[in-house]
């Protein structure tokens, strides 16, 4: 009947044709008319551009010394054995892990306290303090070397892993506090108020109500604190003098000689340095995306 009325012109055009289904709307909205190669070609080129350096590093690390083959065959582990045992990369790895984990814990703990204060309290210099935190991100880490070196020298902390941990924490705190503050603002104050009514103090209410909801944000901030401390070269180079205190970035620098470079050992050291970072991001990818999404939108 509807079709007959439409043919006779007694129904409007909108009523004559059925409404588009949700599946049809999704197809039109997803760029159905765009050829697939226009999507996959740029993605493939970007993936190739990203993975070729990693393959080149694995190639030099796994193929025998003196080989020019483009495929690492036969595979050898001599370069890894050399850097781990002869070049003391086992000690460097341990020192880097200590610095990374300690920086993660200190940065997250201090940023959590500072972020809560910025998110929940109002005080006179709050805007100025936030402006100072943002302005500090424009200061290069190299400008902090001289004052930090003098401070650690007076505290007799030169050639100590604690000096690198403190320097890394100070360098990462401004951005971490700002991010944590954004995460806490997304948690309604009414949840804490209900806990106060039930007899909880502020600290207990924070630990029971707010802290579990901050897990994605804490993982995001902590992971970047760890990765930055793991990869940072400048502070470890300036504050650590003895070989048994050096970290992996400084250890990689020792593989570059004045007249020659052992490419196999250098590539093997680069693989050792990259493995923990890859593992961290592989396990926390879901939490990382959720954390930054939660911190980006205030609801």
Automatic annotation (TrEMBL):
Subcellular location: Cell membrane
Family: Belongs to the binding-protein-dependent transport system permease family.
Chief subcellular location: membrane
The keyword Oxidoreductase is assigned to this record: no
Pfam families: BPD_transp_1
Superkingdom of origin: Bacteria
Entry protein name: Carbohydrate ABC transporter permease
Region named Disordered: 1-32
Residues covered by the ABC transmembrane type-1 domain: 93-284
InterPro entries assigned: BP-dep_ABC_trans_perm, MetI-like, MetI-like_sf
Membrane spanning stretches: 37-58, 97-118, 130-149, 161-184, 205-230, 263-284
Topology in the lipid bilayer: Multi-pass membrane protein
Record key words, sorted: Cell membrane, Membrane, Transmembrane, Transmembrane helix, Transport
